[in-house]
């Protein structure tokens, strides 16, 4: 029995040494580990620190996790933070095209901007070229548009459109065809259904306010269908297209309102529109 244990121990030590002295094999193993674990493993040895800190390894790690479906957002960042540097792209656009350059969406190696005319622009990063895509939407509501929320999930562009009505808790979700040929209507979501699930939500109490804000899109854990996340009356809730149901992701707590114009007790989250951005854990330094 002792001899067997000794042999097993020697085999394990031999395997460990083989991995330790084979940098290519070690790199392939490290590529498959979660981001937080790799940050801790920088302290294991100078060799591990050198590998994990290498910019090419950081990029390969992010691409590996993205292509294998392991990369998912762990936070949402609000546009209030001044923590991003600006990269300037110079070009001229006719004002009549009504393109919103404040909030770009990166998808499939391209930066897209939301437009309110018939077309909008996107920038192909690798080829450094500007191209157009349609922004005409199928008419779904007998009311003027109020706001468009632009986003992406799993390489597909999505658009949420709210409408200007005295009481309107509904908004439409559109999906862009993968060949960028047209927008397709996906579903009309109703916050009234969310109130049935979460009766503590006080929505629809202010005329001509949509009752929610900060609409964004994130990928589901297992399926290709997205989740639509929004802020409603101090709660972060989402509609899961896979399950066809509203869920509560997080409760910000009493008195904590994002996007309010005033600090009084009657403040509501939906007084001010804002955009949120997905945060993905990665090894790259910003």
UniProtKB/TrEMBL annotation:
SUPFAM superfamilies: F-box domain. InterPro entries: At3g26010-like, F-box-like_dom_sf, F-box_dom. Coiled coil: none annotated. CDD domains: F-box_AtFBW1-like (cd22157). Residues 21-61 form the F-box domain. This is Uncharacterized protein LOC18599757 isoform X2. It comes from Theobroma cacao (Cacao). The gene is LOC18599757.
């Amino acid at each position: 029995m002792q001899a067997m244990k000794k042999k097993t121990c020697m085999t394990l030590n031999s395997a460990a040494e083989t991995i330790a002295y084979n940098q290519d094999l070690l790199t392939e193993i490290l590529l498959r580990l979660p981001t937080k674990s790799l940050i801790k493993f920088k302290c294991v040895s100078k060799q591990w620190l050198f590998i994990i800190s290498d910019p090419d390894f950081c990029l390969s790690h992010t691409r590996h996790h993205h292509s294998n479906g392991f990369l998912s957002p762990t936070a949402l960042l609000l546009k209030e933070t001044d923590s991003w540097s600006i990269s300037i792209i110079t070009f001229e656009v006719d004002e009549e095209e009504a393109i919103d350059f404040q909030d770009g969406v990166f998808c499939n190696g391209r930066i897209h901007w939301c437009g309110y005319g018939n077309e909008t622009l996107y920038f192909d990063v690798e080829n450094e070229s500007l191209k157009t895509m349609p922004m005409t939407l199928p008419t779904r509501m007998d009311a003027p548009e109020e706001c468009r929320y632009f986003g992406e999930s799993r390489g597909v562009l999505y658009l949420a459109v709210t409408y200007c009505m005295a009481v309107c808790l509904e908004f439409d979700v559109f999906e862009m065809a993968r060949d960028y040929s047209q927008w397709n209507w996906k579903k009309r979501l109703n916050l009234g259904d969310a109130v049935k699930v979460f009766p503590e939500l006080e929505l629809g109490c202010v005329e001509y306010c949509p009752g929610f804000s900060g609409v964004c899109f994130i990928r589901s854990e297992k399926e290709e269908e997205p989740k639509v996340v929004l802020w409603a009356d101090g709660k972060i809730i989402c509609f899961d297209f896979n399950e066809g149901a509203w869920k509560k992701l997080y409760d910000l707590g009493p008195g904590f309102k994002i996007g309010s114009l005033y600090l009084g007790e009657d403040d509501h989250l939906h007084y001010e529109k804002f955009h949120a951005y997905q945060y993905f854990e990665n090894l790259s330094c910003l």
